[in-house]
């Protein structure tokens, strides 16, 4: 056979040689046909050491490509020509290839080809379309030559040019790959050949430049020509262009040449790929290729345009390169400016140079101004869009223009007489709010324009409030002038007519909420006093004061501010004020303010407040429309007054009476109304706040309790009829209220009504009414403690009475079945003996309420288990009679159609399991009838398994018959129960049955059905001698990534249960030695974890043989630790880390010094750039938590092994801290800084992770005595003091890193979240506690000026808040 193959290969090679020699002999054959013939022969020929024929092909092709005739153009454009070249290049040695291409003027021919393919034109009208003999109408198959059109007019079309370009790029890739090869035997020759190939493009700057520019232009045109935009076949195009540009000879004018020839297509491509401005992003088939193109183009712009321009600017302030680029991109000026500014703003600076920050700021401001000057000629709407996008980029890249430039932009573009550009103003404020704070005129104009927008659409109002007003409010607070904002806000409200006050934009709740959050942090008590005194207006009853005071009062909680605010607010809001001309929505704030004051004041002040409010509030509560917001706020105010008088206050009885009267009025209107949406705020308030007052003694309180219960039932009736989610949320709000749960009288009032609804009917069942499902849902929401003994008996007796009707309803509604079963389970979770209780009730449930549904089956199984366990635990006569009936029933069970059905299996398995696992003190063997029941269950399992094995339908359709699957699963569950009881007597099956079950398990596993693993567990547990270690390993390799871990654990447990320690150790070594623990199937890794859990240490008393083979757990640990950074998925990482934690904790004595260092090293590797490439939404936090646990466990269990090895711990801490403070999503992250971040860090870590790192610092600096004490110690100092002194010599370097990370551009102080810094404070203070003064000096000297300033502030806070003073 090999001889025949050699002969065939030789004959094909000979045919190729003859064809090449006769290429020019027959003039009747067209050039495309000759090329086609060459391709057919060449592609069928194997490689040999000889390459003369390939060189001849090369020469012949270039001879016909180098002319200026149409034939030459046709050959150059013909894609198959370049396909032949890409096939020939690898067959010729690189050194020979380089010389040949130089002699054939390859670069010149390539330049002509690129010039051809960049010159496209439409097909002339009437010219025939090339078909090559293939019909075009509804052709189902295309021939090869349709993929490579040869007709010149076809090749000149845009589609033909792109096909030619695709072949050219493939040939260039082949050529560059030939030059880049590093074959070991001929490395010197290869290197020389590579230089020959590179020299082709470095000999002529002009030719190479034109080639690169033409290819980049082709890339741009391909976005329009190709229907799919770009595809995976274009993946290497941009890399090829970059490589060609790098090969050309460089000179000082490189950046100008790039700007002139490359900038236009580069910016066009980026504009279209990113969808800049109004341009829709190009639809692509490969997002990866799109992202690669964007990244490589931005790198080219940065390397060849922006960086040289910045370098020239740093020398003499020259920006000629940018101006040249802007001049040539006038046709797409807006998009090009955005693209170039994006690259310029994000270009990283040298963080090691202290001057680089100022230089970068100067460059960014100049570049921004240059781009701004270039786009001034654009039309106004489009110009503003460009400027807005530029400012957005500046904010993201932290390269904002100076204040003067922003002020000019605001005056000339945003605040023009013809209109206001709110988006542009928002961006200007985000860049620098001082533009307005330092310019009073601009601020006045902005506020006037905002006031005029009160009647605009909601979206615009939302934009103005969230992006303009709130940032300005924050800016005033940061400038220590929040009082200035309050006064200005108040003046603007006063200027609004009273009848329009509730419609103005300045009344938005977000403004008041933000003010409330800033009051106590941005104002002193003295400043607050001045602000409140200044709130005067011409109209004493102006609602403006109420609006401002509502925001201020909402933020006051500290005693110092309350003392200042309370008397002033009382005098300005309540003394002698009538507020006759204000709307209800404005007056509502008066009651809200009064409610807050009631919570501040003393008893006498509350009495004074009540006296002022009483006449008005009584009228509102009695006659006010519930639709008015004033009524709701007045009710809330009265509730606060009651709380202030509770308990035993002077007016408590009157306040309670008035409150109950209003709740009664509310309940009446709710009952009478068909739509209660208007009353939802009132119901929410009542259910949320009033149950606390239902605990007080007195007639009013009893009345309130009944009123709450009545209101609850009215809402429950609406929920029962309509099933509205909002109604259900209201019910849950009350039932889960902490004040309600412990008040039995209120719970009784609430639960009695739904209980009465399902139980009191005599003629018909309340369980089966249309609203019964909602009633059951209401009962299920009650806490478990609400079901007292009497209520439980009532529910079970009612169920027994109406069980026939319930069963009829259950057969039609599966949700009803689940609700009933959940209620019965909730009842039976506590011992319940109801009237007429008998075993027949469980039989009835099993037979008539079982649905072919896994959820229903599990609920019935749980109910049976709860009931039978209760009976087994009982010792009285009824319990014994109940069990006697149960065992007799099981003993007389008969199969139906050769199998025992689900109800029978449920009863038998439940009875045996409950008897065996009962918590009763009596052994299961002493229960009369237990052995017979267990034997019967074994026979039932045997019968069902034998029947299933003979049913081929289950094998062929493993997931279609749900009921059969449920019965099969229940049978296997019964088999496990029997195996647990009769460990030495497995269920006996025939060989044929076992073989068939093995086939079934394989079928189920392949279809990813869980029952397949349960079946394998059964086989391993019952027939252990049949399966060896290799069989288990094979099965573990078949696990899918989504398999349930408990299934694998049960499988491993079934295998090792009957095996000795030698086999277990051999299995563990086999698993650990495999190559796919960190990737691929999850089963082997789960098996390793299970075996480590079950491992018995030789020191243990359970270890019973000296001849047992004990696995080396230290080696196991080293192997798993080395795999941690290679984890393919989050699940692999979690199980690897969990197993490492098991080894370090439960098997600490088996760990060596090397294991501890390996653990810390693995943490460093995971936090490095070579860490696991895991990209899941929750993966970031979970990975960091696992790393914390590993380091924390080392500190707790193996602290003594760190003595003398502290540097490795410091390395791990530095890696964790760097990862904690990293912000991978920040656009300012430089290439050098991002190299420190692991691939899995796709989002920023949160404050809870900072708390974990702080805990590590406290574990080191404040160790427990147990973690550092030796068994014998003669030291005079305590072990903890010694450990603290040792830590103090090194831990200050962590503080140094923390300060430096905050100062880096990628993690500037402003971008490290406040809550993260707050969470780190305990750990940092703990380090400073143990750091001696000398080390603090070293720390201070190691920092630059900015770092010392940060450390000074940190140390001052430490002395003020963190240092223990002994008080």
What do these coordinates show?
The protein is mainly alpha-helical and 1367 residues long. It has 69 helices and two strands. The protein has a two-stranded antiparallel ribbon with strand order 1-2. Strand 1 and strand 2 (419-420) form a beta hairpin. The longest helix is centred in the N-terminal third of the chain and has 30 residues, at 287-316.
Please give the structural blueprint.
Blueprint: H1 2-21, H2 31-43, H3 52-65, H4 70-77, H5 79-88, H6 94-103, H7 106-117, H8 144-147, H9 152-156, H10 158-180, H11 187-202, H12 205-225, H13 237-247, H14 254-261, H15 263-274, H16 287-316, H17 320-328, H18 333-346, H19 356-374, H20 380-397, H21 403-414, E1 415-416, E2 419-420, H22 422-431, H23 434-437, H24 440-451, H25 458-478, H26 482-495, H27 509-522, H28 525-533, H29 543-554, H30 559-573, H31 584-600, H32 603-623, H33 629-645, H34 652-672, H35 680-689, H36 699-722, H37 725-735, H38 738-741, H39 744-759, H40 772-781, H41 789-801, H42 803-810, H43 814-828, H44 840-848, H45 854-873, H46 877-891, H47 902-916, H48 930-950, H49 952-956, H50 962-981, H51 991-1006, H52 1011-1022, H53 1029-1037, H54 1045-1056, H55 1061-1072, H56 1083-1094, H57 1113-1123, H58 1130-1146, H59 1153-1166, H60 1179-1197, H61 1206-1221, H62 1231-1234, H63 1247-1261, H64 1265-1268, H65 1279-1288, H66 1292-1303, H67 1314-1330, H68 1333-1341, H69 1345-1362
Antiparallel strand pairs: 1-2
Helix pairs in contact: 1-2, 2-5, 5-10, 6-11, 7-12, 10-11, 10-12, 12-13, 12-15, 13-16, 14-16, 14-17, 15-16, 15-18, 16-18, 17-19, 18-19, 18-20, 20-22, 21-22, 22-25, 25-26, 25-27, 26-29, 27-29, 28-30, 29-30, 29-31, 30-31, 31-33, 32-33, 33-34, 34-36, 35-37, 36-37, 36-39, 36-40, 39-40, 40-43, 43-45, ...
């Amino acid at each position: 056979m090999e001889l025949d193959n050699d002969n065939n290969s030789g004959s094909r090679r000979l045919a190729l040689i003859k064809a090449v020699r006769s290429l020019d002999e027959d003039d009747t054959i067209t050039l495309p046909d000759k090329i086609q013939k060459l391709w057919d022969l060449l592609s069928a020929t194997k490689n040999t050491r000889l390459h003369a024929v390939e060189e001849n092909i090369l020469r012949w092709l270039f001879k016909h490509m180098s002319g200026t005739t149409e034939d030459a153009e046709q050959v150059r454009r013909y894609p198959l020509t370049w396909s032949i070249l890409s096939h020939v290049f690898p067959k010729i040695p690189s050194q020979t290839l380089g010389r040949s291409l130089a002699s054939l003027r390859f670069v010149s021919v390539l330049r002509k080809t690129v010039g051809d393919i960049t010159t496209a034109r439409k097909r002339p009208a009437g010219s025939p379309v090339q078909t090559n003999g293939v019909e075009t109408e509804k052709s189902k198959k295309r021939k090869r030559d349709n993929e490579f059109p040869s007709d010149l007019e076809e090749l000149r079309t845009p589609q033909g040019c792109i096909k030619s370009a695709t072949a050219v790029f493939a040939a260039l890739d082949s050529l560059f790959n030939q030059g880049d090869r590093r074959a070991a035997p001929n490395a010197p020759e290869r290197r020389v050949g590579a230089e020959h190939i590179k020299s082709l493009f470095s000999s002529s700057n002009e030719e190479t430049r034109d080639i690169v520019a033409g290819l980049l232009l082709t890339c741009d045109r391909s976005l329009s020509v190709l229907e799919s935009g770009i595809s995976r076949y274009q993946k290497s195009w941009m890399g090829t262009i970059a490589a060609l540009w790098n090969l050309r000879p460089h000179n000082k004018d490189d950046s100008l040449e790039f700007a002139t020839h490359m900038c236009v297509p580069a910016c066009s491509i980026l504009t279209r790929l990113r969808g800049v401005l109004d341009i829709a992003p190009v639809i692509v088939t490969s997002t990866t290729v799109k992202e690669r193109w964007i990244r490589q183009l931005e790198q080219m712009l940065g390397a060849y345009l922006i960086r040289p321009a910045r370098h020239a600017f740093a020398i003499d302030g020259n920006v000629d390169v940018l101006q040249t680029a802007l001049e040539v991109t006038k046709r797409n000026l807006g998009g090009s400016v955005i693209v170039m500014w994006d690259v310029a703003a994000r270009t990283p600076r040298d963080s090691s140079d202290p001057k680089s920050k100022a230089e970068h700021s100067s460059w960014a401001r100049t570049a921004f101004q240059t781009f701004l000057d270039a786009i001034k000629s654009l039309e106004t709407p489009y110009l503003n869009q460009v400027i807005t996008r530029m400012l957005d980029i500046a904010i993201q890249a932290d390269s904002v223009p100076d204040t003067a430039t922003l002020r000019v932009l605001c005056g000339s573009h945003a605040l023009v007489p013809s209109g206001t550009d709110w988006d542009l103003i928002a961006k200007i404020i985000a860049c620098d709010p001082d533009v307005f704070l330092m310019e009073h005129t601009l601020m006045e104009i902005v506020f006037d324009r905002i006031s005029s927008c009160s009647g605009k659409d909601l979206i615009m109002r939302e934009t103005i409030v969230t992006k303009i007003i709130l940032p300005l409010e924050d800016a005033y607070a940061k400038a220590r002038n929040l009082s200035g904002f309050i006064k200005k806000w108040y003046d603007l409200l006063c200027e609004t007519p009273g009848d329009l006050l509730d419609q103005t934009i300045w009344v938005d709740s977000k403004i008041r909420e933000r003010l409330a959050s800033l009051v106590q942090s941005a104002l002193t008590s003295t400043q607050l006093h001045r602000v409140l005194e200044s709130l005067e207006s011409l109209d004493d009853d102006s609602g403006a004061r109420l609006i401002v005071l509502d925001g201020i009062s909402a933020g006051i909680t500290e005693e110092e501010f309350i003392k200042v605010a309370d008397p002033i607010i009382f005098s300005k809001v309540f003394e002698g004020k009538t507020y006759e001309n204000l709307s209800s929505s404005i007056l509502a704030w008066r009651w809200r303010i009064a409610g807050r004051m009631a919570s501040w004041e003393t008893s006498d002040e509350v009495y004074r407040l009540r006296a002022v409010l009483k006449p008005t509030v009584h009228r509102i509560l009695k006659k006010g429309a519930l639709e008015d917001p004033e009524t709701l706020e007045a009710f809330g105010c009265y509730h606060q007054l009651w709380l202030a008088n509770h308990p035993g206050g002077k007016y408590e009885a009157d306040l309670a009476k008035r409150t109950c009267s209003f709740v009664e009025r509310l309940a009446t209107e709710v009952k009478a109304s068909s739509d209660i949406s208007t009353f939802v705020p009132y119901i929410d308030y009542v259910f949320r706040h009033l149950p606390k007052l239902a605990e007080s003694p007195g007639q009013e309180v009893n009345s309130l309790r009944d009123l709450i219960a009545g209101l609850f039932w009215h809402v429950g009736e609406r929920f029962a009829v309509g099933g509205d989610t909002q109604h259900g949320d209201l019910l849950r709000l009350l039932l889960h209220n902490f004040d309600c749960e412990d008040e039995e009288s209120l719970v009784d009032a609430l639960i009695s009504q739904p209980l009465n609804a399902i139980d009191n009917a005599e003629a018909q069942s309340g369980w089966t009414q249309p609203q019964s499902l909602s009633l059951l849902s209401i009962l299920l929401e009650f806490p478990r403690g609400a079901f007292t003994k009497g209520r439980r008996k009532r529910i079970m007796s009612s169920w027994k009475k109406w069980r026939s009707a319930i069963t009829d309803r259950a057969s039609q509604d599966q949700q009803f079945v689940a609700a009933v079963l959940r209620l019965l389970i909730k009842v039976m979770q506590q011992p319940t003996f109801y009237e007429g209780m008998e075993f027949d009730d469980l039989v009835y449930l099993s037979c008539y309420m079982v649905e072919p549904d896994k959820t229903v089956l599990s609920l019935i199984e749980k109910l049976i288990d709860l009931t039978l366990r209760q009976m087994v635990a009982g010792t009285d006569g009824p319990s014994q009679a109940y069990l006697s009936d149960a065992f007799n029933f099981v003993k007389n069970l008969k199969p139906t159609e050769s199998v025992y059905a689900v109800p029978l299996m449920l009863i038998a398995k439940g009875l045996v399991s409950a008897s065996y696992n009962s918590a009763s003190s009596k052994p299961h063997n002493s229960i009369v009838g237990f052995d017979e029941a267990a034997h019967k269950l074994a026979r039932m399992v045997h019968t069902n398994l034998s029947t299933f094995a003979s049913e081929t339908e289950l094998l062929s359709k493993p997931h279609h018959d749900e009921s059969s699957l449920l019965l099969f699963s229940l049978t296997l569950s019964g088999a496990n129960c029997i195996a647990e009881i009769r460990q030495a007597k497995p269920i006996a099956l025939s060989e044929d049955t076992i073989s068939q079950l093995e086939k079934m398990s394989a079928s189920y596993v392949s279809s990813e059905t869980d029952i397949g693993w349960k079946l394998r567990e059964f086989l391993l547990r019952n027939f252990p001698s049949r399966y060896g270690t290799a069989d288990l390993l094979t099965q573990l390799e078949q696990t899918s990534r989504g398999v349930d871990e408990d299934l694998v654990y049960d499988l491993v447990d079934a295998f090792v249960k009957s095996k000795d320690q030698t086999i277990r150790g051999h299995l563990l070594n086999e698993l650990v030695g495999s190559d796919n623990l960190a990737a691929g199937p999850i089963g082997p890794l789960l098996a390793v974890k299970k075996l480590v859990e079950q491992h018995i240490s030789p020191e243990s008393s359970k270890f019973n043989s000296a001849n047992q083979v004990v696995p080396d757990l230290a080696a196991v640990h080293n192997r798993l630790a080395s795999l941690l950074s290679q984890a393919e998925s989050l699940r692999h990482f979690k199980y690897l880390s969990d197993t490492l934690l098991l080894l370090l904790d439960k098997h600490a004595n088996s760990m060596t010094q090397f294991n501890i260092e390996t653990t810390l090293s693995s943490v460093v590797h995971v936090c490095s750039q070579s860490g696991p490439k895991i990209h899941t939404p929750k993966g970031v936090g979970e990975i960091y938590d696992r790393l914390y646990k590993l380091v924390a466990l080392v500190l707790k269990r193996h602290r003594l092994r760190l003595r003398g090895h502290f540097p490795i711990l410091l390395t791990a801490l530095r890696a964790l801290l760097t990862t904690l403070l990293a912000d991978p999503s920040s656009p300012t992250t430089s290439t050098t800084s991002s190299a420190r971040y692991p691939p899995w860090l796709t989002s920023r870590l949160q404050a809870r992770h900072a708390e974990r790192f702080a805990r590590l610092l406290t574990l080191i600096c404040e160790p427990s005595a147990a973690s550092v004490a030796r068994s014998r110690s003669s030291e005079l100092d305590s072990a903890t003091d010694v450990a603290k002194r040792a830590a103090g010599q090194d831990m200050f370097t962590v503080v140094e890193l923390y300060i430096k990370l905050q100062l880096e551009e990628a993690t500037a102080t402003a971008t490290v979240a406040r809550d993260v810094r707050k969470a780190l404070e305990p750990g940092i203070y703990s380090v400073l506690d143990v750091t001696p003064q000398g080390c603090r000096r070293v720390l201070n000297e190691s920092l630059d000026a900015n770092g010392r300033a940060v450390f000074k502030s940190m140390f001052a806070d430490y002395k003020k808040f963190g240092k223990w003073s002994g008080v």
